[in-house]
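Researcher: We're teaching a course module on how sequence relates to structure. For the next exercise, students receive a sequence and then see the predicted structure as tokens, so they can try to spot secondary structure elements on their own. Here is the exercise chain.
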Amino acid sequence: MTPETVIVGHSAGCPLIVSLLERTDVEIHKAVLVAGFIEDIGHGVAPLIQDEYGWDKIKNNCKNFVYINSDNDPYDCNDKQGRIFLDNLGGTQVIVSGEGHFGTSEFNQPYPKFPLLTKLIEN
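Model: And here is the predicted structure for the students to work with:
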């Protein structure tokens, strides 16, 4: 990772990114967390979540945070989960209507292109 790094995570990748940022001493440019969660939402995700997070350390290791959530995520990785990140780390939350989990095959949501994500990475 470098000061120019942009890192993107989807779903379970989001708590992983936050954990990595807590453990590094390199400040990155941007983290984009798509359909992320930071609390136990069921579905067997509890082992992926830490009991506590060093929010100040995480915030100091990333200049910009962006959270993308859908208002109808079938796994509860919704705007409420994004708001927890936002409240603890600052940044920008984008709530999209009707996009589910952004690419879940069992809900017939193919995502061959994600123009919003591309735009957020480039800006």
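Model: If you want an answer key for the exercise: The longest helix spans residues 13-23. The helical segments are 13-23, 55-60, 79-89, 115-122.
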